[in-house]
Amino acid sequence: MARKPLIAGNWKMNLNHLEAIALVQKIAFSLPAKYFERVDVTVIPPFTDLRSVQTLVEGDKLLLTYGAQDVSPHDSGAYTGEVSGSMLAKLGCTFVVVGHSERRTLFGESDEIVLAKTKAALKNGLTPIVCIGEGLNVRVAGEHVEYNIAQLRGSLAGLSAEDISKIVVAYEPVWAIGTGKVASAAHAQEVCKAVREELARLASPEVAAGVRVLYGGSVNAKNVGEIVNQSDVDGALVGGASLKADEFATLSAIA
Ligand code: PEP
What we know:
- By secondary structure, the protein is an alpha/beta fold.
- Helix content is 45%, strand content 15%.
- Strands 1-2-3-4-5-6-7-8 form an eight-stranded parallel beta barrel, surrounded by five helices.
- α1 crosses α13.
- The structure holds phosphoenolpyruvate.
- Phosphoenolpyruvate binds next to β8.
């Protein structure tokens, strides 16, 4: 099954709503409409920027989409600081990142929490970008495939084949995030292929063939081509390089 590549720019905790508008305008106007027929491009700003991005994208009928960096596992109520899936849906979000390694390591998110957030996203019609990835010690021990598959199974436990057909998986080795040490294309392919094989076991080969599996970790305009050329890599989750309009537009056009 042909899978449309996805390039997602995770801005992390950067850019206020005015800076967000400027960046989205620059990216959108650097990419001719025909690019969007071939590649999906999405930006993932902080919550505080979403309303401004929505106004811009809807007002100017831009072809890029946008999403959020996190979602509450709860529907509504006394959860100070949380943002629900229905709130994000109302803001026009297409995607929501769940289980980013920074959430897992800095905020103690377990696979159970990531699963609950994945369910909250699906319940509200959002596409969860479910992140997995091994640390350096696991990589050095050569246990990266087993580790990522265990994390994937925990983060998707009990989801139906239909639910799994609606997700995106992002493989992001922790040792590659923000370090400038991009994984080799062969390493990215090895893990993304194992992810797809596991999705086939959890859902079905047909479902697995349609799920987009992204690579993330120090992707830039120079290295994106080789990575997305791998048969099981369907795009990239991009951090630092997504804050530079020219570089993000260039790497989106290459993908
Ligand atoms: C990320 O945070 O998801 C990421 C991949 O960051 P960077 O591209 O900066 O390594």
